Amino acid sequence: MPRKLRHVPSTPYVHLVSDSAFGSSRIRVDRNHPIGLERPATGAHRATLSCATCGDPVAITVLSLTATKLWRLGWLLASGLGLALVVTCALSVIGTGPDGDAMPLLTLGFLTGILLSVYAILHWWHEDGVRGPGLPWRSGRHYVRHFWAGPR
Fold this sequence. Notes:
The chain has one domain (13-149). It contains 2 helices and 6 strands.
């Protein structure tokens, strides 16, 4: 079961305080701030918040409960599609043997299915219906904290 949806999303936005590189290591220091916007009854609500650290505007979109549940359903279906691809390719290899002409294609399908299912199930689990300024490595000083950005 994914995280419970609330009327106020639990996903924070982040202000990047510093980003330093030391050889092959990278140290990021950031501050989490709650979004504090209530979900709309339908559709999406776009708002510009003022960053609690620097005061710059941060554009945030919060989806309604229904829209967030539809996104979760989409991620779950994508994960199911990936798992179906994995099973189909595995059964094809078992049926034809490992020396068949389609082995490279089946291997590619198997690996693609695994990657798709893992990617989609992670998004399904963490989908909170919040969209922000962008990805942590491309968005400048503000972004929405998603599962790939580390612990909350």
